[in-house]
């Protein structure tokens, strides 16, 4: 289960960098924002970076390009435990079920972002 | 410009609560996660809460139900300064331009989430 690696590094690209340092468990993945001018990211930028980084951490089979349904389910269980408790991610479970083969189907970043949005909308409705 | 208020409170709903305490400037809006069992939110849950909370903070005219184009532009300028610098939000500027009357058109939460996703995708492509 070795998942060590560094990807999407920052300068000299000027992008928000995502550093991934996995050492066997996903909880060790960390996201570090870096900007061309080394100024601190805002809270919203850090939040966006966190959501991006989790996708990269769990997208092992797809090498950060896609999540399998099983990887998405693992992410939801481990990273959205409270949203699950209050019923925000119920629709996500159903969507994951409908994605197809649990180890083969591909959930790309845009779909992942949409599913996180569904969780967010669920919370706003409560 | 008084924006004080508390909305979307938590228990007894068991939801992720968003407490909004504005005192004249949006920077004073704060998001506080609260769960039924008072356990700490994960980093991803806090990130989602942050993105939700910013929508609520800037959606003054629409009373947290929608952003006007001008409010969305203000949010992008103030809260996504680095994404702007590295060119991730260029497409957002164009989308805001196309939304219609800057003070009247309505950007609902789902559209806002999609636009934040566009910024995230832009960063991943860099």
- Largest β-sheet summary of chain A: 2 strands, antiparallel
Please identify the oligomeric state: homodimer
Number of strands of chain A: 2
Strand order of the largest sheet of chain A: 1-2
Number of helices of chain A: 5
> Which spans of chain A of ≥5 residues are poorly predicted at pLDDT below 50?
1-25, 27-38
Average residue pLDDT of chain A: 73
CA gyration radius of chain A, whole angstroms: 15 Å
N→C terminal distance of chain A:
38 Å
Which structural category do the helix and sheet elements of chain A fall into? mainly alpha
| Envelope shape of chain A | globular
Order of helices and strands of chain A: HEHHHEH
State the share of residues found in helices of chain A, binned by percent.
40-55%
